[in-house]
Amino acid sequence: MRKGTTETCRCRHSFHAAITTHIQSHGAADGYLFQAAKGGWVRYEAHRVTFAAAAKGAGLPEDFTPHGLRHSYASMKLAQGIPITDVSRWPGHQDIGITFRTYGHLVDEARDRALDVMQAGYQTGIAEVPAAAC
Question: What is the pTM of this model?
Answer without folding.
Answer: 0.55
